[in-house]
Structures are given as structure tokens and as C-alpha cells.
Specification:
With about 500 residues, the protein is an alpha+beta fold. It is about 40% helix and about 15% strand. The strands form four sheets. It has an eight-stranded mixed sheet, with helices on both faces. The protein has a four-stranded antiparallel sheet with strand order 14-15-17-16, with helices on one face. A three-stranded antiparallel sheet has the order 3-5-4.
């Protein structure tokens, strides 16, 4: 319905009483649009609130609130006893609309080179929302997590919270948690550190990105395992680093190849305890070679110990950091693979000379991790529950790996070659025949199974195809169903390959 007053044309002003939007918000928004569009020009006076209220059969307070909002945002001005007048809006906007020129479509954001690289790398990174699907790699047995116990510890902390935990906390992390982490890393991973070297962060991604920001410059070369952790490509690209692929074999990272290919590399990223994705363990001789390279070239080593606590024969291997005599190793580990991913707590063990730099980097990143969650985790570790949970998960995961391999061999046979691994929480299955692992992964995903394509973990041209398969999350029934789906996906792709 069109309404007119002496000095304001309400051609497009419609108050919808059935709308969930309050009438004063509707009136404010529509008058604002008339001003921005140039249909109410600067200097024109608006009718009195009483007149508008009468015209539209609303309370005067509705109009007053709308006018107050317009005045507060600078669209109108007025004093008590004086008329409310339209204020001049930017000429470019109003003139363009008055000329009848349509508003242009939104422009694509003008990203920086770093932003463009990050966006490109992100598009090729696996979707982490697949994590609840059977055989997703890197996902612990979420249903085996002690939820009730964790709930009691959390409730106890919130029942009478320490005010310090509710305020801004220590940038480097909650002190009791850092002490518990240092004790755990020393006892189980052979690390050489104290609590002052531990910095608590929100996930290993943050730890690695922070390390690279501190120790590299754009254009520096970084040695990456090939195949390796696919997330490193985006992180390196976002920081302007030049990734140098280094082949991996049964003994892990080929240090000789790295030195020959890139003698001036600034930093190396490795997963020595259980290589991602092949599962290889970096041999003792190569560990010493890598440490000697770092000392000689004053380079740095990022040791990503993402699942090193899960070793099913003997004790977990000593971390690279634990045998480093020259303080060139930055050790990174996470609770996401050990407890639950949503906890988003990880840590860095920094060389003593770098601690202050890491704390500064964390302070100007996101300051610190949530205090109460850190305190609950500290309680969980200090009271022995963490060590008990690790023992339970080692036993459970060893059983699940054996069942996974047995079921695969029974259903799929030697079309998918799987070998036991004494560590980790995933396996790599290799094809007997030449198949496109991306097509197999897509076919499996259509059936509700996450089978990562091995070829996506290569920096350059893939030299082997296969599937990266997590076995820890699925129970026996889910494993049986998933293996059946995987067998069907393999047959489907193999049939298409033969007919092509």
C-alpha cells in the first residue's frame, strides 16, 4: 500500500505486521534505503513522528526508535523542536543508483600471493568432515574415549573454578599441564626437556605453522617427505616456502637424497617414528645423518610425532629430539590422535634458546589455549588416567589392526596388499593391478567409506598407487561392512579399467 505525506514519499514503504522483524526495524531499514538510493535527498525534512505514526497506524514510539537509529548511524539529523533532516550520503553510491546503473556483481577477493597459494592448496586437501566415516586415517576410537570420567573431571573444575583459569592465562600454557607433558614425553618418548620448554597450542597445525614463521623466510627451501603429510603443502605454500620432495623408502626419509638435491635447505619436516603415510620408521643411521646435517648447516628439523605413542611391539621409539645434541629439533605432538580431535590441544617442545620466540609468536597469534580444558587434561594426566588410556588403546588398536587385515584378506584377497605394522593408527594398502587410486577412493566414498588415495600424498608425480586406511575408529561390525564396500569399489574400478 502506498502512502504519502507532505515531505516524504512512501512508495516502497510497507510495514508487514506478520513478519518476525519488529516494525521499528522495518521502518528504519526502508527509510535508510530511500536515503541511500537518492530518493530522499540531503536537506529534505522528514514528517514528524506523530504524523508518520498516524499515517501508518503505529505507535509514536515505533517511529521515534526508527528515527533514533537513523540519526545514530548518520543518515538523518535533528534537534528537539526542530525538523529531522536527511544527511548527505556518499555521492558515488547515491548518484549511481539515481542514474539507474545496476550495482555490479561482487568482485572476487584480491588475495595476496600467500592467500592465493593457501586457497589453492586447501582445495586439494582432504575434507576433514569425512572423519566419522569408517577407515578415515588419523582418527582414534572416539567411542572408546572415557567420556564419563572426562565429564566428572570437567564438572569438578567448573563446580568451584579457579578464577585464574577463567581469565587470560599463561601464553605458554597452564603450568601443571606443561609439567605433566614434560614428564610424559620424557618417560614415554625419551625426550630431553623440562616444563619451561613446553608450549601448549591449539593443534599440531598451529605448532608447525608457528615454527615455520619463526625459522624461515619467504623463498626458503623446506625438505618434505614424498609421499608425506599432505597438509604440509598448504602450510609451506602459504608462507612462501619452496617445497623440495625427498623420497621415502623402508628406512624412511632418504637423507642422502635430500642433501644432494638441496644442500642449502633451511628446514626439514619429518615423521620419523611412523612415517605419514607409508608407516616406515626412520632408521638409526639416517637419524644420525639428519641430525648431523642440521648441526653442520645450522638447519632445523621439525619432528612431527603425531602417533608415536602407539607401538604394539616393544616400547615406543626414542624421539629424534631425545638424541639431538645440538638443539636443532623442534618436537611437535598432539592429543587429537590420542584422545579426541575436538580437544584441539597439542604442544611444542622447543630448544631452550627458542622458547622466548615461541612464546612471543603464540602471544601474537591467539594468546593461549582455553584454560579449563587445559586444567582438565592436566588432571587426567596427573591422576594416571592418561597412561591407563594409552595402554587400553594400544591393546584395542593392535586387535583392530589384526582383524582389519584378516577381514581384508578374506574378502578382497591379494587385490589389496596389506601388511601388519608394529605402530601407528593407519595402514597403506597397495594394489596388485594397476588402478587409479583416486577412482577407487571416489567409488568407496559413494558407499560411505573413506579410503584416502596414496597418490594425493606425493608432491610431484606419484610413483605408487594405493589406499591410506585408518583401522582404529571402526569396530568389528563396521570393519566388516566397510571391507565389503571397499571390495565392491575395487571391482567396480577394475571392471571399468578392463573395459576402457
Amino acid at each position: 500500500m502506498s502512502k504519502h505525506t507532505d515531505n516524504l514519499t512512501f512508495v516502497d514503504l510497507h510495514l508487514d505486521r506478520s513478519s518476525g522483524t519488529p516494525l521499528h526495524r522495518q521502518m528504519y531499514a526502508q527509510i535508510r534505503d530511500l536515503i541511500v538510493e537518492g530518493r530522499l535527498t540531503a536537506g529534505r525534512s522528514l514528517p514528524s513522528s506523530r504524523a508518520i505514526a498516524s499515517t501508518f497506524d503505529v505507535s509514536r514510539s515505533t517511529v521515534v526508535v526508527a528515527f533514533e537509529q537513523l540519526a545514530m548511524e548518520g543518515y538523518v539529523s535533528g534537534r528537539v523542536g526542530d525538523a529531522t533532516r536527511v544527511v548527505e550520503v556518499p555521492r558515488g553510491e547515491s548518484a549511481r543508483v539515481r542514474r539507474g546503473v545496476a550495482r555490479p556483481a561482487p568482485l572476487r577477493p584480491l588475495l595476496s600471493r600467500r592467500g592465493t597459494s593457501l586457497e589453492r592448496a586447501s582445495n586439494s586437501h582432504p575434507n576433514l568432515l569425512q572423519s566419522l566415516v569408517p577407515f578415515s586415517a588419523g582418527i582414534p576410537a572416539i567411542n572408546a574415549f572415557p567420556h564419563a570420567l572426562w565429564g566428572r573431571l570437567t564438572q569438578r573444575r567448573w563446580r568451584k573454578p579457579d578464577p585464574a583459569l577463567l581469565s587470560y592465562g599463561e601464553t605458554e600454557g597452564y603450568r601443571p599441564l606443561r609439567e605433566a607433558i614434560a614428564a610424559h614425553a620424557t618417560a614415554t618418548r625419551g625426550a630431553r626437556c623440562d616444563a619451561d620448554q613446553v608450549i601448549v597450542v591449539n593443534g599440531s597445525f598451529q605448532a608447525i605453522e608457528m615454527t615455520l614463521r619463526l625459522l624461515t623466510n619467504p623463498g626458503d627451501q623446506i625438505l618434505l617427505e614424498d609421499p608425506g603429510y599432505s597438509g604440509m603443502r598448504g602450510t609451506a605454500a602459504a608462507l612462501g616456502l619452496r617445497a623440495v620432495p625427498v623420497a621415502v623408502d623402508a628406512e624412511g626419509f632418504r637423507v642422502d637424497d635430500a642433501i644432494r638435491a638441496c644442500p642449502r635447505a633451511r628446514i626439514a619436516y619429518v615423521t620419523p617414528s611412523h612415517q605419514m603415510p607409508t608407516g616406515a620408521t626412520l632408521s638409526a643411521s639416517r637419524r644420525m645423518q639428519l641430525l648431523a646435517w642440521a648441526q653442520r648447516c645450522r638447519g632445523w628439523i621439525i619432528e612431527d610425532d603425531y602417533d608415536g605413542v602407539f607401538r604394539y611391539r616393544g616400547q615406543p621409539l626414542t624421539a629424534l629430539q631425545g638424541i639431538d645434541e645440538s638443539n636443532r629439533v623442534i618436537y611437535v605432538s598432539t592429543f587429537s590422535k590420542v584422545l579426541v580431535p575436538s580437544l584441539r590441544l597439542a604442544y611444542v617442545i622447543a630448544p631452550p634458546d627458542l622458547v622466548d620466540a615461541f612464546v612471543a609468536a603464540r602471544r601474537f597469534s591467539d594468546r593461549h589455549s582455553p584454560g579449563v580444558e587445559q586444567a582438565v587434561l592436566a588432571d587426567f594426566m596427573e591422576q594416571g588416567f592418561f597412561a591407563r588410556h594409552l595402554r587400553r588403546m594400544r591393546s584395542l588398536y593392535e586387535e583392530r589392526q589384526a582383524f582389519f587385515i584378516k577381514e581384508s584378506r578374506r574378502v578382497i584377497g591379494d587385490d589389496l596388499i596389506l601388511e601388519p605394522n608394529p605402530a601407528g593408527i593407519h595402514l597403506v594398502g597397495y594394489f596388485r593391478a594397476r588402478l587409479d587410486d583416486n577412482k577407487v577412493a571416489a567409488a568407496a566414498w559413494d558407499l560411505g567409506v573413506s579410503a584416502g588415495a596414496l597418490s594425493t600424498h606425493f608432491l610431484g608425480k606419484a610413483t605408487r598407487n594405493g589406499l591410506v586406511l585408518g583401522y582404529t575408529q571402526a569396530d568389528e561390525r563396521e570393519t566388516q561392512t566397510g571391507i565389503q564396500a571397499l571390495a565392491w569399489a575395487l571391482r567396480r574400478v577394475r571392471g571399468r579399467s578392463k573395459s576402457a
